[in-house]
Amino acid sequence: MKQYSAEFLGTFWLVLGGCGSAVLAAAFPGVGIGLHGVSLAFGLTVLTMAYAIGHISGCHLNPAVSIGLWAGGRFPASKLLPYIGAQVVGAIAAGGVLYIIASGAPGFDVSKGFASNGYGAHSPGGYSMLAALVTEVVMTMFFLIVILGATDKRAPSGFAPLPIGLALTLIHLISIPITNTSVNPARSTGVALYVGDWAVSQLWLFWVAPIVGALLGAVIYRFIASEEK
């Protein structure tokens, strides 16, 4: 139960910190943090939580990561559903807290996006569904490769949160203009449910693509990291 509670809290922090920076601070008049700040915020949520709860739950914070770690031989199948459940509930709870905070400002309109992920007319840059699909698959694939490599028993110990957090920052720097960056089905669900409408109808892509990408990343890492016999 402590592991699932840790995943709930960690995913809550990721959504509140990452999506919160996008909703509350990205375009704040005069001193907004912009795309670079939002990218860094997402990376910092993972970095800080990895040190805080990594020794408790492994700090997955992401259904695709849990599935990828299972496919990579690092996580038991018996814990997959409870981990994913804790992550999704944590993300939805954080979305609710963020909604309460954001709605306290005059002119707040949740239908404008609320940091939701989207494609086509709902992509920040107007990118197509295919572009969004490829982006999310490839970004999640490389995220899993970094995670598996950084946590490999042969890697330097104690430093894994740094490359993982920086990788997530880089992923956001690349893909915010395309999909608003998901690579995390829980993160996408946690805000989409409050927007409803298009955000929910497009949510399927932000479950399917990250999971496919995570599985590919696990397969690739197992191939390149296997020791020669």
UniProtKB/TrEMBL annotation:
InterPro entries: Aquaporin-like, Aquaporin_transptr, Aquaporin_Z, MIP, MIP_CS. The record marks F42, H172, T181, R187 as: Selectivity filter. It is found in: Cell membrane. Keywords: Cell inner membrane, Cell membrane, Membrane, Repeat, Transmembrane, Transmembrane helix, Transport. It comes from the Bacteria. The keyword Disulfide bond does not apply. The keyword Disulfide bond does not apply. A motif (NPA 1) lies at residues 62-64. It catalyses: H2O(in) = H2O(out). The record marks C19 as: Involved in tetramerization or stability of the tetramer. It is a multi-pass membrane protein. A motif (NPA 2) lies at residues 184-186. The chain crosses the membrane at residues 80-102, 127-150, 162-183, 203-224. Channel that permits osmotically driven movement of water in both directions. It is involved in the osmoregulation and in the maintenance of cell turgor during volume expansion in rapidly growing cells. It mediates rapid entry or exit of water in response to abrupt changes in osmolarity. PANTHER family: AQUAPORIN TRANSPORTER, MIP17260P. Homotetramer. Belongs to the MIP/aquaporin (TC 1.A.8) family. Aquaporins contain two tandem repeats each containing three membrane-spanning domains and a pore-forming loop with the signature motif Asn-Pro-Ala (NPA). This is Aquaporin Z. It comes from Massilia violaceinigra. The gene is aqpZ.
